[in-house]
Amino acid sequence: MPHDKLITLSDVANRAFYDGNFEKALTLYNEAIQLHPTNFILYSNRSAIFLRLKCFRKSLDDAKQSLVLNPKWAKGYFRKGDALRGIGKFDKAIFAYCQSLAIENGIETIKALKDSLYHSSIKGMQIFSPFRIFKLF
């Protein structure tokens, strides 16, 4: 029975998320995590909700927890990168996106990585700046 309830909660939470009802989705994912605290996908999905709510540190915590539970979860690294970008840590976001790409080559991750590279160069992070290459010649 708990597994059926988990599936139902996840389905309803996903619908709420895609409908833009992030508070409802958050409540449902909180309940789902209580039922199944070792499900890495639940933490990853709740991380996405926190991103939409601009709760970047909470998003980062959930992304990290999803990776503790499954270190080979590419989307966990992607969520971690998004959360780090949200708090302005572009250098660390770049590393997280690269970890995601090492596991799974996704176009969404490549776009996020390019965006973070751009923003890190604007912030003066010369070590990751794509423009630094031209200074070497």
Automatic annotation (TrEMBL):
SMART domains for this protein: TPR
Short name of any one Pfam family annotated for the protein: TPR_11
Keyword Endoplasmic reticulum: no
GO MF entries: Hsp90 protein binding
PANTHER family: STRESS-INDUCED-PHOSPHOPROTEIN 1 (PTHR22904:SF523), TPR REPEAT CONTAINING PROTEIN (PTHR22904)
Organism: Wuchereria bancrofti
Record-linked InterPro entries: TPR-like_helical_dom_sf, TPR_rpt
SUPFAM superfamilies tied to this protein: TPR-like
Entry protein name: TPR Domain containing protein
